[in-house]
## 1
Amino acid sequence: MPARKRVYSGIQPTAVMTIGNYFGAVQNWVRLQDDCECVYCVVDLHALTAPYDPAELRRASREMFVSLLAAGIDPDRTTLYVQSTVPEQTELCWLLAALTSLGDLSRMTQFKEKSGLLKSGPADDDGAFVSAGLLFYPVLQAADILAYRADRVPVGQDQSQHLELSRGIARRFNSRFGRLFPEPETLHTPVTKVLSTADPTRKMSKSLGPRHYIGLFEEEDSIRRKIRSAVTDSGVPPAAGHGDEGDGDGRTASPGIENLLTLLAACGHEADAGRMREDYFAGTLRYVDLKGTTADALVALTTEMRERRADILRRETDLEGRIMAMGERARTMAGETLALARERMGTYPPAV
Ligand code: TRP
């Protein structure tokens, strides 16, 4: 039997996991556990590149760790860890930096966006602080992936460029020092993109404010309120025969309706969603029905998730200890790679 593929991915720590995070990434991570050997990381070191509060970061890392367990990441099959518990990766980051082109780094779209270079030249010039961590972000990401010699990396489209860079670094290492790293493939699994119910022209995001996202562990009342007030028609009438999305017949409802149908289907109610979509185009859909059904489905999901979360918190009496133990497992894996990388690159192991 061929060895199972190793999958690696990372997620930024945030205190609240949204259904956007869940349907857009985490649910896919959970499924991948069945066929692959998975390593998943809460990337707190990457989070240092944006303004943050230290106590809040620690809390967010812990919350994200628990949320991932509650969402179905199984610590018996999968290595789930917090990035800063594995210093081997940071050392590998430095080794790999020597193999990374400054030109490539400064051409990364995400770097240009976040550093403000796209708008106004270096933001440093207008007094705003731009951390060099932003430039280094993709090197640390490459170190994450390569430390575990991962074959496949499930990420969104926005990370393709970072993955290409990781492959380039792997290639440069392999040709200069002998083959050590697989070139990690981007795994573009179709996932569900969830929009804000308050403004369905924008992606569901916590940064837009509480009206714009639904938490995976959110209480029933507030979910019902958000779905009840969800924007449905944005002044665009349904145009039969137009649009390039939809369910195969080429029709697209208004963004708000599409988003509610998407959520309903994502909760496992594809048949209901299909029927309501037909009613919509037949002009017989009552929005209260769509909203009621979607709210019911979401409440069922979040209730289950909340129960699992409560269960985990009951079982895991020493959460910090658990995070350390998982980190130890990850350190062993990353340590093996790092030892080989040091040897090939001609540096010493740490003194003991
Ligand atoms: N940069 C990724 C994001 O913002 C997160 C990330 C960090 C990551 N390290 C990674 C993703 C390694 C995949 C593999 O989404």
## 2
Amino acid sequence: MTITGHTQLVGLIGASVTYSLSLRMHNGAFHALGMDWAYLPLPVRAGNIGDAVRGLRALSFVGANVTMPYKEQVIEHLDEMTEAAARMGAVNTIHHVGGRLIGDNTDADGFMADLAAHDVDPAGRMALILGAGGAARAVAHALHQRGARLRLTNRTRSRADALAKTVGGTKVVDWTDRGTVRADLIVNCTPVGMLNRIGESPWPGPLGPDQTVVDLIYTPQKTALLKQAQDAGALAIGGLGMLVQQAALSFARWTDRSPPTAVMRATLENL
Ligand code: NAP
């Protein structure tokens, strides 16, 4: 990649972005299409999210992705929100248009696109979401819109209660009781299973062949939860497919071009 005086900048805001796969996907896509664009790691220390967002505007970034733990915190620093992001209360994509920073969310559509790719239709099925952070918000709203019956559980109960208030017909289950819920679909929206928690599973209950388990984690690709699901004969879906789908949607939003999804996916092969 060559950086020129005309290079258009986008990047990833998060507490820890060192190992992010988004850098590979977006820079691979820019390269494949011969675009003079670059996607940069933008690590942000606790307490500096406001400065980081103002920096995007000051430095004429076209946009950014937002990851843990800033998807909710970033909102108060933006000028506008899309209707979907406002409804979810979480932003994973910022677009800088005419000096204004617009918050959007491509996680929800990315999640649903990957479920569809696995022939999973959540309509009428019971779904249990583990977690109540930014990703859980997107998943909860997407599943609710698609007609799933929702159960939410989170280590910090008050966050699950707050999320449930924004999604109709949702029941909250205590974190300590989560293993007793018999759901058709279980979605892990916590980082339990990655980084310093590799080998740990957030699911303490039984699983069976009639269930679908989605782990949003993509490093490692096969988490302890997915192994547990496979061993029980359940359909086990990792986070890589959603990662590609949400990235493709962000790419389209920033560049107004059709995303080279196959190229983006190929950058993640042989990891
Ligand atoms: P976040 O906003 O920081 O939320 C993290 C959630 O996990 C919170 O509900 C938190 O509970 C819970 N949590 C954290 N540590 C925990 C622990 N040790 N035990 C139990 N619960 C714990 O993060 P996020 O952006 O939603 O991301 C969550 C996960 O989804 C990450 O693994 C991320 O990589 C993944 N993700 C994947 C994709 C994809 O495309 N595949 C997209 C988005 C996110 P508290 O409220 O108690 O703190």
## 3
Amino acid sequence: MTTTAVEPLAPPAQIPADELLVAGEWRPGAGPEITCTDPATGCTITTLRGASASDVDAAARAAHAAADAPAWRDLLPHRRARLLHRIADGIDGAAEELARLQTLDTGKTLAETRALAASAAGTYRYLAAACETADGELPTPRGEHLAMTVHEPVGVVAAITPWNSPIASDAQKIAPALAAGNAVLLKPAPWAPLVSLAAGRIVHRALLDEGLPPALVSVLPGSGAEAGEALVRHDDVGIVSFTGGTATGRRIAEIAGRRLIPVSLELGGKSPAIICPDADLDHAVAGTLYGIFSSSGQSCVAGSRIFVPRDRHDELVARLADATRRLRVGPGTDPRTQVGPLVHHDHRDRVAAMVDRAVAAGARVVTGGRIPDDPALAGGAYYLPTVLDRVEPAWEICREEVFGPVAVVLPYDDEDDLVRQADDTAYGLACGIWTADHRRAWRIARRVRAGTVWVNTHKQFSISTPFGGVKDSGLGVEKGRLGLRTYSTTKSVYWSLAEDPIPWAAPR
Ligand code: NAD
């Protein structure tokens, strides 16, 4: 494994002040302190006072009033679209700064965070267009009766996001929620709140410039237990849009179920990456490693279970190991880095402990399996890209999401055996298939239970294509026109034009 030395960020990213966006105002939170750490060095970036339950209450009440204010409620779709374009322009204008801030806070490579900033701007633009062109339905009249269906805002959206790609996952919730006419309370994760706050300044400025109620969007980083649960339980919140772990999603769904409010859940995964015997192996090996090791494996769709034909097992393990050893591990600011640090030392230690348990159970470490020994990386939350072999499907390492740079190799006998093993998981988020046989690809793609399937690629996304999981990977979809509907309720209006609308009077 090649490692590269830590270099300081240049130019220094702008660190947001100790202020949250609560009910249209920037002020320190009243909740517990959040320490933001640069995972490449372990140094503290800044501290913030996070949101308390009382901050959530203030933001939710103000959001409820703002959502119902005529200035927003009666705004025509092309004006909502103008707001979204203005936010997109703001993100584009600050893209480099936002990317650097996200790299500083999460450790992701600059190449990744630049792409995420661009995708966030693209999300706002897509939703601006979707908002202007959204249709209701007006079926052919039945005799003298018309019936039409209109889609109305839910009211206040609680948007709860994880730390791995904050600027993109925030945009995937704020943009459709605003496009559908709602107010939004965003709660980013406490490990990486800085870019959400910086993008929040852009959203806030755009609301003011458009003359709209600033309380339409609050940004409330804080703990899940206090700020998160306060949001889900708040009477003024009409829907929870959550991205994060499955256990948290289940808890949120239980609370929301008691309140009878809808939830959209984008949860975890343990996705298969399938190498078929006829695959172009250079592409398959490079693509499979990208699928698991980019973002240091901290991706919900990471292809963490690599399936190889049993009779090609040794050859493929050797190729995967060789290519993995050549990956460059280092700080996200170094343009040569392919695998950055994990988001936090606590998370790195959790990943290391999972690998240690697998090894204790009998797994073979093909490569990696430890913290790098390069002294230049000593302060950071690094973990070497790891390939494990000779694992049992029932073991934790094959069943639980590691959310780190760790792949297991699993051999299969034939297509039926492959599909059975690929589906032998509680999750159903994504699947990558590498093959030159398009009929085979189609058969496997249709049989595997997953929300997204990639053929001869991995981790490719488009804002116009719906994304979601099945089984324990989630409920509902984001992105695409379907994703916009998540944030609306449906109302049907019947309208009679008949002279005698209900001829029910008894005959004289
Ligand atoms: P997490 O579930 O610990 O936290 C996610 C968010 O929920 C955070 O903002 C957290 O503070 C909040 N939260 C925690 N407990 C809460 C509670 N009781 N009530 C309300 N909010 C609460 O997840 P994480 O560690 O931040 O992120 C990693 C997970 O996210 C992984 O499982 C990953 O697969 C998943 N993820 C899924 C997708 C997807 O689109 N399917 C995308 C990215 C990440």
## 4
Amino acid sequence: MRSALLNVMVQAARKAARRLQRDFGEVENLQVSLKGPADFVSNADRQAEDTLREELARARPGYGFLLEERGEIKGTDPNHRWIIDPLDGTTNFLHGIPHFAISVGLQRDDTIVAGLIYNPISDEMFTAERGRGAFLNDRRLRVAARRELAQAVVACGIPHNGRGDHGLFREELARVQAKAAGIRRLGAAALDLAYVAAGRYDGYWERGLKAWDIAAGLLIVREAGGTVGDIDGRADVLATGNILAANERIYAELGKELKAAGRG
Ligand code: IPD
Ligand code: CA
Ligand code: CA
């Protein structure tokens, strides 16, 4: 049985997802046009965000918003705000790759208390509420039990043109590459975190993310028994956006490699 709060979030996500799904079908047809589907996709993105905002505002009037597309919208309730990425994995969506998600987190004061990540193509709904565990559809989630980096599949984010520190990433990659069983980069941070919670990945790191990429995912990983923090050990990963997530053992080992990379 889902709580009333999660029901509200699930319904809003399903509504926004129906539209995204239709638009994704259309994107495949637009690949061959000279201009490509870029404008169409940013429109789909904004529409999904509007749907989420309208649905959530109706169910919880007064809550504020931090939206990827439209920024901060202050609510009359100073303690609550939704942190939303209506389409995480835009580049995948744009290229017709069926790996993207809606991400919705609810922040109470400084704490994320509920999170939802929904991939409309695979129909996988990852949810969590603080203190109540994490779920994939109706199944309880648990991070993987692997204890050695040598057995671990680790996901990452690769900074692309104009973003991030490419040299540092290559150093980090070289360190992890030498130790891990496999490395993945599927291109949707929210799903990377959801996959850690589901025990598919043993760990994940990425730098330069925004609050809407990780708000829901960090709670889902923690509620699945995993550890989430800032790569460099700073206090607030939601603010730094340099995220490391794994089970406790892999977290320590992976963290050690990444820190060593930073020191050159
Ligand atoms: C991006 C994805 C990607 C990550 C980028 C994010 P967007 O979000 O999560 O995996 O590497 O840094 O910006 O732009 O698709 O919402
Ligand atoms: Ca994103
Ligand atoms: Ca996005």
